Amino acid sequence: MKDIFLVLLSAIIIIQLVVRLIARGRQKPIRGYLDIIALTAEQKRRVEEIRRDFLPQVEGIRQSLRQKRLQLNDLLFTEAPDMKTIAEKSNEISALQTKLEREVIDHILQEKELLSPEQKREFYRLIRKEFEKGGLGVHGERGNVKDR
Q: What does the DSSP 8-state code read for residue 116?
């Protein structure tokens, strides 16, 4: 009797886990902060238009940043590190970070223009919370936006 109970309990737990995994797989992934705010169909369409340009552009910058940081890592660990070359690589990284920050700022301003006053207040709270944490994890860069 005890064994049957344990088997049934295990089956129920497994079924619940499977149902949760299936439900999670059906949820649309969050790609940005405006995915958390309730938008009209027209607002969603316009956000997607903005993202069509923004996402590939920032991904290119992020890829360049990763590449430059790996190059910097190699320079730092050579037998005889060249400080001039290291400084130049560091400046390249700083320039890319500045470019990325500008793109994100422009993106936030573009998206903000699509919102109603109440939506702007919610958007402000989301962005403010990220700035308080030290930056923006725009579009999945630092994990799931929903958890913020």
A: -
C-alpha to C-alpha distances, 16 to 2, 11, 22, 27, 78, nearest whole angstrom: 21, 9, 10, 17, 53
Gap between the Cα atoms of 132 and 137, Å rounded:
12
Tell me which residue has tokens 């009797």. 1
Q: How many domains does the chain have?
A: 1
Domain that holds residue 106: 2-147
- Is the pTM above the cut of 0.70? no
DSSP assignment, residue 35? G
Structure tokens at 139: 């579009």
CATH number, domain of 86, equals 1.20.120.1490
Lookup: tokens for 49: 């238009």
- pLDDT for 98-136, tens place per residue? 999 999 999 999 999 999 999 999 999 988 988 888 766
